[in-house]
Design brief:
Belongs to the pterin-4-alpha-carbinolamine dehydratase family. By secondary structure, this protein is an alpha+beta fold. It has one domain (12-96): Gyrase A, domain 2 (2-Layer Sandwich), CATH 3.30.1360.20. It has helices at 8-16, 37-54, 81-96, and strands at 22-24, 27-33, 59-63, 66-71.
Length: 97
């Protein structure tokens, strides 16, 4: 079963608790500046494991120490609770260092 789309109000409310994330259309994005290239790769590895466990996968762009995560539930056609939950998990993993 496909998750329900979040309303614009739901997304705005969720982003209050996700201050590093911004909305662009049907996705939310966050860019992290890692301490080193390998630290960025390690963050991607940890996010990949969490994403696999949740069966919900972000788009990830790696540019040296800058890692950008973009979330959207493509099969639902926009943002769902899966995206905000994974955004919170990415924030948690990033804070761990």
């Amino acid at each position: 079963m496909r998750p329900a789309l979040l309303s614009d109000d739901d997304i705005a409310e969720a982003l209050k608790d996700l201050p590093e994330w911004s909305r662009t259309g049907d996705s939310i994005t966050r860019t992290v500046q890692a301490a080193s290239f390998l630290a960025g790769i390690e963050l991607v590895r940890r996010v990949a494991a969490a994403a696999e466990a949740a069966n919900h996968h972000p788009d990830i762009d790696i540019r040296w120490r800058r890692v950008t995560f973009t979330l959207s539930t493509h099969d639902a056609g926009g943002l769902t609770p899966l995206d905000t939950a994974l955004a919170r998990e990415i924030d948690r993993l990033q804070a761990q260092g």
